[in-house]
Design a protein that fits this description.
By secondary structure, the protein is of the alpha+beta class. A two-stranded antiparallel ribbon has the order 1-2. The chain starts with 14 loop residues before the first strand and ends with a helix.
Length: about 55
């Protein structure tokens, strides 16, 4: 039997895929105010997206 009620359990947090690489991003407290606008998992993916749109 799995205990999922321990402190620090992240399985109940929402997640969504990165627009560039498709990797799942899990909700972070730093993104609490703008979770709806978060599109990329990292600065690298954000930069790659801008490079792809220029070409």
């Amino acid at each position: 039997m799995l205990n999922t009620s321990f402190k620090g359990n992240k399985s109940s947090l929402s997640s969504k895929p990165c627009a560039q690489c498709g990797r799942d991003m899990t909700w972070r407290k730093a993104w609490a105010k703008n979770w709806a606008e978060v599109k990329y998992c990292s600065d690298k993916c954000r930069a790659a997206s801008k490079q792809a749109s220029k070409q």
